[in-house]
Amino acid sequence: MKETILRNIKNLPGKKTKRKIVVIYVDDYGSIRIKDKATYNNLKSAGLPLDANRFSRYDTLADNEDLSKLFDTLTSVKDSKEHYACFTPLAIVANPDFEKIKASGFTDYHREPFTKTLEGYGSAYNGVFELWQEGIRENIFYPAYHGTEHINVKRFMAALQQGHKSVHLAFKNKSVALPVLPQDVTVSNPTTTFFIEDSAENEQLTKDIKIGTEMFLDLFDFSSKQFTPGAGIYSPFLEKALADCGIKYIHVQRFLAYPMGNGIFSKKFLYNGKENNFHQKYIVRNCQFEPDGKTDNAEANRCLLEIEAAFRWGAPALLSSHRVNFVGQLDKNYRDTNLKQLRYLLKKIVEKWPDVEFMNGDQMAEEIL
Q: pTM of the predicted model, to two decimals?
């Protein structure tokens, strides 16, 4: 009963439409975590508790097989207008350049485009970016900006400079944001790219946003209109910088204490379509699909109930997921099980709502918000 009430209440505020629109937002594409299976085995043998969470257990860059199988799943259905299902991957455009950081004696941070990162990942990744481009052309894989990298650079570099054993161990294996050895101090929130402790940090983050959005344009030949902060946290002081870089829509959490720096937090209630002082509109996802290797269809069926609640109250169904569900370098069975659930979910959507419309994030925002 509680879940039913919450599913409905969260869809009361926000922009309304009579159309049954489904958008699938999937975070983290382009970012590194564990390089490959050999790296996973090396780090686990060294004592890192990689099974502590699903990201350190399964997450890595999407390879050719991952994207091919995903595209096959997305094109297994069509909506009422003969459009395939579409992912809006929230993309990270750069990763740490490990060699240059090491060459600097860990004093300077350096980054590389994620396309260069792909070049060092072996034959399974040959042609991956071409698949991204194919997905864009077919409107089944249409990216938006998730950040320049998916690490908190300040904390990452501080850990390296302080000789943090676990961070250095991951660094040597070209991996980041992993659980630490039992004897090491935990690195707090390593993926919260835009979290600040001091408002002065926004100056560098503003520069990083400008760099990242320009890299996005160079990679994809279009500018991102949407932004999702890493781990869902950012300072509202960055909204002007985002607006100056062409970001019209910002993904936020419904209730969150946003860091302003110096121990001050701004508590806000936000909803889909609410506008800020820079005429940007907020996007609040209202459905979740995180199959996480479950062998039944319970997660898909739960997501269907959330979609139903969204449509009941005239809201677009904005699904939230993560890349980790759909990559198989570390465990192909995990990926294939999750893709099976995705295929089931998409089939049920078109059966239950024959007038459904699949859209990418930009299409939905421009037409509804």
A: 0.97
